[in-house]
Amino acid sequence: MYSEKVIDHFNNPRNVGDLADANGVGQVGNAKCGDIMKISLRVEGDVIQDIKFKTFGCGAAVATSSMVTEMVKGKTVQEALAVTNKAVAEALGGLPGEKLHCSNLAADAVHAALNDYAEKKGN
Amino acid sequence: MYNLNDNLQENSKRAENNPQEKYSGMGQAGQGGQTGQRDQGGRRVYMDNSATTPQDYRVTEAMTAFMTETYGNPSSIHQFGRVARTAVEKARGQAAELIGATPAEIVFLSGGTEANNLAIQGVANARANKGRHLITTAVEHHAVLDVMTQLSKKGFELTVLPVDSEGLVNLADVQAAFRPDTILISVMHANNEIGSIQPIAEIGTLARERGVLFHVDAVQSLSKLPISVIDMNIDLLSVSGHKIYGPKGVGALYIRKGVKILPMAYGGGQERNIRPGTENVAGIVGFGEACRLAAEGLGGVFAIERLRDKLLNGIVESIPDVIVNGPLGDLRLCNNVNVCIKFIEGESLLLSLDMQGIAASSGSACTSGSLDPSHVLMAIGLPHEIAHGSLRLTLGKQTTEEDVDYVLEKLPPIVERLRAMSPLCDCEASQL
User: Fold this and answer.
1) Residues in A touching B345 (Cβ below 8 Å)
2) What is the DSSP letter of A3?
3) Any idea which fold B58-297 has?
């Protein structure tokens, strides 16, 4: 049901944890529906220097979280904002149909963290 | 064909030396063939026996002739047909004996789902003029609940009994649910997810006193608990072959003598017109043999129970923040372990266990095929976020002490790894 890439990211997730010196944190999903993704990142000079995730959820939720951290690390804020949930799923070689809605929120979590960064910066 | 026989004999011989293979006759497949890609040739432990059981090699042996040289139609008058008829009737006797029924009260069909459908729809259609009220419980299998729900859309009224935190119905609730127009009550013997054993005999007495027909889904309890349709005042009872080390695609409905139900299909008159269609002879023979073995092996449930307790206690002792679902002790099915492991999600857990060769199941939304966790976990009052972390491990007669030790060795580090990844663990731990 899952692609090899999904299984690889589930088994060997990249960038797991909380970033101690994060300047943007975002969380999406809720425990009721079974998926929560939390992203913490550090932006320096408009570039995402470091990023980490923590996820409660199924295999797809973990894999998309891991994949999105790889996709946006080292990218500018604008580039990261352009990454969509769909693009993350495609980068993983696709997700089973029923997973596309409930467990495919990783890009949203990154966007939430970037919004948090922008707000903090604005203040 | 001689190759097949040679293999069977070889399997039987090997089985005598190796208890792991004895029940399944699946020696080679059992050691690494089946799931392929993610199997690194390591140990494989099957802990999903409530989903299905490995077929006992003696069942396979009993069936083989009926998939090869003995191909007659049981309805035929010639010798080919008579041989098949004799085999079907022998199996009917074996199935009847296991539940304390007479052979004429057994109808063979395709399995538990069909048995539940035929029992409930068959009674509803036959008795609609006597009343339109049906009773069931919140923790039934979908093959009961969904049938009841469909009937409730067609003019029947439905009472769904609640259960307590251990998944058990309350007899006072049962008593209060009966109405003058109640025609059927359907209660499962043992729950497939959390193993709760319902007070079937007591409910049977209440139903019989009121002239209400009593249907019992015994798919999970057959071979694990003694069943007497007479003593328990059961009118209809559903059973399935592949949950008792028999073949898939075959099961039976017990219909007490004198109880009238309408068929769901019409045709050639087989199975007393209640379930027409040429009999699945090989499947029925296998089912009969599985029933015979179950009758012999009912004493063996204590061995499974001991391993079940070792597994359950081991999990609770080695992993913090674990909730046991279902009752402890005598009211729990002998092979069932069901726990919620807080802060992690069930499907992730299953994937991780599968990587280690361990086959399990979960009631999380991801595995229930809907957005909600299992209706059983909801019915016992678990919050969504905890129900998402459910893990069911179901043992079988082929389960060994080493299997249990292996799961107890592999599970804690998996949980630790997933919890380290979970945002619930640090920020919401105190709230859950």
Assistant:
1) 34-35, 56-58, 61
2) -
3) Aspartate Aminotransferase; domain 2 (3.40.640)
φ/ψ of residue B393, rounded to 5: -120, 120
The answer to whether A27 contacts B351, with C-beta atoms less than 8 Å apart, is no
List, run by run, the mean pLDDT of 10-residue segments along chain B (432 residues).
38 44 40 40 92 97 97 97 98 98 98 98 97 98 97 97 98 98 98 98 98 98 97 98 98 98 96 97 98 90 95 98 96 98 95 96 76 90 93 97 98 97 69 40
Residues of chain A contacting residue B428, judged by C-beta atoms under 8 Å apart: 31
Question: How many contacts (CB atoms, under 8 Å) link A and B?
Answer: 68
Residue A123 lies in a domain: no
User: In chain A, which residue's Cα lies nearest the Cα of B369?
Assistant: A98
CATH of the domain at A45: 3.90.1010.10
Tokens of B424: 């619930």
The answer to whether B321 faces chain A, any CB pair under 8 Å, is: no
Residues 6+ apart with CB under 8 A from B171: B199, B202, B203, B206
Would you call A102 a catalytic residue per the annotation?
Answer: yes
Whole-model pTM?
Answer: 0.90
The CATH class of the B4-55+298-421 domain is: alpha beta
* Owning domain of residue A18: 4-118
**Contact by Cβ (8 Å): A67, A89:** no
